[in-house]
Automatic annotation (TrEMBL):
It comes from the Bacteria. Keywords: Acyltransferase, Transferase. One of its GO terms (molecular function) is acyltransferase activity, transferring groups other than amino-acyl groups. Residues 13-174 form the N-acetyltransferase domain. This is N-acetyltransferase. Belongs to the acetyltransferase family. RimJ subfamily.
């Protein structure tokens, strides 16, 4: 699937494909322990070069299971990322939002739009995700989206420099459809 023209508008946000000119905003928001410390694969410090490397990896012809969206304001300012990657056991849903935009319902809004898009553009029957056990706010976002807890594991957090308790979650297509 060519995702080149994908643009999703919600009430307050725009989800669009990443561009190289997003590097400064991505590096600014991810170079914050409060953001990076909630994510598994983000080192700290997070540099402009790290952001550029990641943005170069986002090919417009990637399949839905490997699609990332920039979460942008209506004036096109990058404020976060939501998307998917192919994990060992299925498609994994991931996201982050810059700290100034927390506690406004924006992540739930962006997540719902991204999940709508995934289920419309793939045959996947379930999406996996999870949060570090201390991240109650992110777990609340997932619960609002219909994710349910399926277990506990441990996962490395690069920014925190260690392995942490992780709450594993999943969302099935049938649950998503029933909630829409």
């Amino acid at each position: 699937m060519d995702t080149m023209s994908v643009r999703i508008e919600t009430d307050r946000l725009v989800l669009r494909l990443p561009r190289l000119d997003d590097a400064e905003a991505v590096s600014h928001y991810l170079d914050d322990y409060g953001v990076a410390g909630n994510l598994a694969r983000v080192p700290l410090p997070y540099t402009l070069s790290d952001a550029q490397t990641w943005l170069h990896s986002r090919n417009v012809s990637l399949p839905p299971a490997e699609t990332s969206f920039i979460i942008a304001t209506p004036d096109d300012a990058c404020i976060g990322v939501v998307g998917f990657h192919q994990g060992r056991e299925g498609i994994v849903f991931g996201y982050w939002l810059g700290r100034p935009f927390w506690n406004r319902g924006m992540m739930t809004e962006a997540g719902a739009a991204a999940l709508d898009w995934l289920f419309e553009n793939s045959l996947t029957e379930r999406v996996l995700s999870g949060v570090f056990a201390f991240n109650a706010a992110s777990l609340a976002v997932q619960h609002k989206l219909g994710f349910t807890e399926i277990g506990r594991s441990s996962q490395v957090c690069l920014a925190r420099g260690g392995e942490l308790e992780h709450i594993d979650t999943q969302l099935t297509r049938s649950v998503w459809k029933a909630r829409r």
